[in-house]
Design a protein that fits this description.
The chain is built from six helices and 13 strands. The protein has about 325 residues and is α+β, with helices and mostly antiparallel strands. The chain folds into two domains: about 1-20 and about 225-328, Thiol Ester Dehydrase, Chain A (Roll), CATH 3.10.129.10; about 55-220, Hotdog Thioesterase (Thiol Ester Dehydrase, Chain A). Strands 1, 2, 3, 4, 5, 6, 7, 8, 9, 10, 11, 12 and 13 form a 13-stranded antiparallel sheet that branches. A hairpin with a 5-residue loop joins strand 7 (about 170-185) and strand 8. The longest helix has 20 residues, at about 90-110. It is globular and about 50 Å long. It starts with a strand and ends with a strand.
């Protein structure tokens, strides 16, 4: 049985994407914050932390997947976690994002942060993330060896891409993810159906059975997301979109939304090392200067586990995404 916690519209207002609470912060984030003139001990988290450094990588078996290794020694950790050394799930999501970029950079020969093939450039196309579902299993700690692998399956309407992040030190799966990317015209911002010729370009580097290729028999599955309105939920946090939130597609980067979602979950009293699932469906783009509101509906099970349904929208009511997170 689940107990819903009552909606309300009280919230702490956040300014400039950071939150001041005196929580100790460690790792590369500290360097980024000091560069902005902020004291590390005064900021809980920032959206500006990059993916951890890569230590190597290349194509996997028969070129059907792509593998990279990451150094997580200097990454953000979760305060109060085991020995204070467990890395944040945000780091894992950035590894996944970085891996997808690295794979397509290698395939396309375009080394920009938003790589596009020659065919995509000729047609003014880019990839945009439509849906991504994470399952978190065994978050690595600083000093662990982390390896991530991805493979994809191009389709007419969308490209499916799946991921496995492994803690090579413990021998356990750290996380898995499944995602859907769509092709969008960068000028009209409209969806584009990939021609067969474009799909055929990847017949030797894609795979039909991504689960078998990654060795993950139970990839995460999409869940049924909430359909509530902001009037039926609690306003947990709010932001103003900064220049640093904007990617080369000219809109807020997908990983920035994950910061917003997890920050609003922390407002509900959960610990980041208790996350088990995060499922996100992106609805609309948002841009520089827009005011963002994050709403939540939280239910608590008899075992103490929590389910949080998320709604992120602009102050004017444009729905940007819906998501669900599960916590043990």
């Amino acid at each position: 049985a689940l107990r819903r916690e009552g909606p309300g519209r009280s919230a702490s207002r956040w300014s400039r994407g950071t939150r001041r609470h005196g929580t100790q912060y460690s790792g590369e984030c500290g360097t980024a914050l000091r560069a902005q003139g902020l004291q590390v001990g005064d900021v809980e988290r920032t959206r500006l932390v990059p993916a951890p450094p890569k230590t190597g990588g290349g194509f996997g078996a028969k070129g059907r997947s792509y593998v990279e290794r990451f150094d997580v020694q200097g990454c953000e950790t979760i305060p109060g976690s085991a020995s204070g050394q467990v890395i944040s799930p945000i780091v894992v999501t950035k590894i996944v994002e970085s891996l997808a970029i690295g794979h397509f950079q290698t395939l396309s020969g375009d080394t920009s942060d938003v790589p596009r093939s020659k065919e995509m450039k000729d047609l003014d196309l880019t990839f945009m993330l439509s849906r991504i579902t994470f399952s978190f299993c065994d978050l690595p700690a600083r000093g662990d060896a982390v390896e991530a692998e991805t493979c994809f399956k191009p389709q007419k309407v969308s490209f499916k891409r799946d991921f496995a992040v492994r803690n090579k030190t413990s021998g356990k799966l750290a996380a898995a993810a499944t995602s859907t990317y769509v092709l969008v015209n960068v000028k009209t911002r409209k969806l584009f159906i990939a021609p067969k010729e474009m799909i055929d370009l990847y017949k030797d580097t894609s795979t039909k059975d991504t689960s078998a290729q990654l060795g993950v028999p139970n990839l995460p599955k999409k869940s049924k997301l909430g359909s509530f309105t902001s009037e039926e939920a609690k306003l947990s946090s709010s932001f103003v979109v900064e220049q640093s939130d904007i990617d080369l597609n000219g809109h807020v980067g997908a990983s920035v939304y994950i910061h917003w979602i997890l920050d609003s979950a922390v407002e509900e009293g959960v610990r980041l090392d208790a996350i088990s699932t995060l499922d996100i469906e992106y609805k609309e783009e948002c841009f520089l200067g827009e005011n963002i509101e994050c709403y939540t509906q939280t239910t608590t099970g008899e075992d103490g586990g929590r389910e949080i349904n998320h709604l992120v929208q602009t102050q004017e009511g444009k729905i940007l995404l819906r998501a669900k997170s599960l916590w043990h």
